[in-house]
Write a structure and sequence with these properties.
Helix content is 20%, strand content 22%. By secondary structure, the protein is α/β, with parallel strands linked by helices. The chain has one domain (10-260): L-arginine/glycine Amidinotransferase, Chain A (5-stranded Propeller), CATH 3.75.10. Bound molecules: citrulline (CIR). The site of citrulline has 21 residues, from loops.
Length: 265
């Protein structure tokens, strides 16, 4: 197995903080329960570690209620990392806090500068390109800045669009393998996955589109039996993890980690 888009030796995750009750949410469907969130998070980290990857678990950061959703603050690629510029004002500072941790893995770290915005949740890295959805958090200027930042790392950056009312591009899709994307129908109808094989989430189970391929596993939220059965039949090695508390804050499987293989020195 050598696909750079889902073969990883490392991940970084951050414990949920007590301040998570103040986390951003589109609709209030209840306050997340910290103990249950911590239990789900521990299961998630255990699933990552079960593949043999080294997972650095950062302490909770009370100053940033949404900092458990660490994916939004950086993009880690084989040759270097890019520190994002989150579009949510309460999350802007998360990027600088993460930079020193990234520096322990990467010598080449690039940044997205003001006035542009881009969040990791809008970025889907496939084997051949980086798809970035414009959204309420990611601007066309941010995507252009990412294109410039990664130009010499061998990736093509393609601008696509996150559906109206959907938080991030990856809220509605995930990479399953080199050729295959799991997507909601409301996203794939835009035509953004032309050239890929698309598997759709089952009707009524759109909330499980945010899964991750991590080495041999596809890690997806528990509670979506029709989609799980479809993926199981398609031959994927599924690991289900509870996500009810993160979901109250519009978070899913991808947001909870940065997944990467740092360049060897
Ligand atoms: C936010 O609104 O920023 C958080 N409550 C959820 C972020 C989810 N992140 C992601 O999908 N990458």
């Amino acid at each position: 197995m050598s696909a750079r888009s889902y073969t990883f030796t490392h991940a970084i995750s951050r414990r949920p903080s007590k301040s998570i009750i103040d986390g951003l949410r589109a609709i209030d469907i209840g306050t997340p329960d910290l103990a249950l969130f911590e239990a789900h998070h521990a299961d998630y980290v255990a699933a990552l570690r079960s593949t043999g990857a080294k997972v650095e678990l950062l302490e909770a950061d009370e100053a940033y209620p949404d900092s458990v959703f660490i994916e939004d603050a950086a993009l880690c690629l084989p040759k270097g990392a890019v520190v994002m510029r989150p579009g949510a004002p309460s999350r802007l500072g998360e990027a600088a806090v993460l930079a020193p941790t990234l520096a322990s893995y990467y010598s080449d770290i690039r940044t997205i500068d003001a006035p542009d915005f881009i969040e990791g949740g809008d970025i889907l890295t496939t084997e051949r390109e980086i798809l970035v959805g414009t959204s309420a958090r990611t601007t066309t200027g941010g995507i252009e800045a990412l294109r410039r930042a990664t130009a010499d790392w061998g990736y093509t950056v393609r601008e696509v669009h996150t559906p109206e009312g959907v938080l991030h591009f990856k809220t509605d899709c995930s990479l399953l393998d080199e050729e295959t994307i799991l997507s909601t129908e409301r996203l794939s109808v835009s035509g953004c996955f032309e050239g890929y094989k698309v598997l759709h989430t089952a009707e009524g189970e759109e909330a499980c589109a945010n899964a991750i391929r991590f080495n041999e596993l596809v890690i997806m939220p528990a509670g979506f039996p029709k989609t799980a059965e479809m993926l199981d039949k398609a031959g994927y090695n599924l690991r289900l993890v509870g996500n009810t508390e993160a979901a109250k804050l519009d978070g899913g499987m991808s947001c909870l980690s940065l997944r990467f293989s740092p360049p060897v020195a």
